[in-house]
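Per-residue structure
===
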Amino acid sequence: MLAVSADGATPLSLLLVLAVAPTIFLLWFFYNQDRYRHESKKLMAITFLLGALMTFPAAILELSAKSLFPEGNTLFAVFLFYLLEVAVFEEGLKFFAVRIYAYNSKMFVEPMDGLILGVTAALGFATVENILYVLQFGLATAIVRAIISVPSHALYGAIIGFYLGEAKFRRRPLLALRGLVAAIFLHAIFDTTATVLPSVIGIIVLIAFVLVLYYRVVKGEIQEAEEESPFRPGGRRALGDQVKSQKKGFSSAEWLILDFAQTRQKTTSAGL
């Protein structure tokens, strides 16, 4: 989601460029985070395409769910709507886009592959969604979504992919579900914030959300995946070691979700 009013004057070709540009940048950025061995471009291309194709079942599922359970008018109802009728479908299908093919590929050889491929699938999904929004709403939406919505999709994909990589190489399948659940809740928090806050304030808060998500969560996952790489000079860190951010039982992403839950509870208690 996240769109602002259209201006009706921007050339179609420029809108398409602006819609695709953040994807190109983010693919380049995350691709170059792997310092030891780059992912297979073929595997990334297939995963990107699968992610893009997931927008179609997501749209069908979301429309069906919305007709059955319309969005409520309280903060908790709005959050529940985005959690169960948007984020579950979108993040679940991104997860599926990686799990259905790349996860079992011989080219998926280290935990970092999971993170990069998760980003790739998410950006495939986000690119189709972004083109549709930008063509409908125009230049302002293209700019806002380039700095907020598309990066947030990439970051949810990074979390999903990181945990898929950990699940595969630690041989602990349930870790994959942990990443999926974290991404679903973070996505719902994002959409709820975009809906309930006024546009300018909401944009500022969501920029902060994206920055915190990258620097407090995904950047640490990139470092963790690098330390576990079999291609790391001097040898990898043992895959059985606990992630530093999980020493107390929760990942950084889960701490962010708990912080939101505590804030929502205080807000509800105050009658807002």
About this structure: The mean pLDDT is 87. Residues 50 and 264 are 35 Å apart (CA to CA). The radius of gyration is 18 Å.
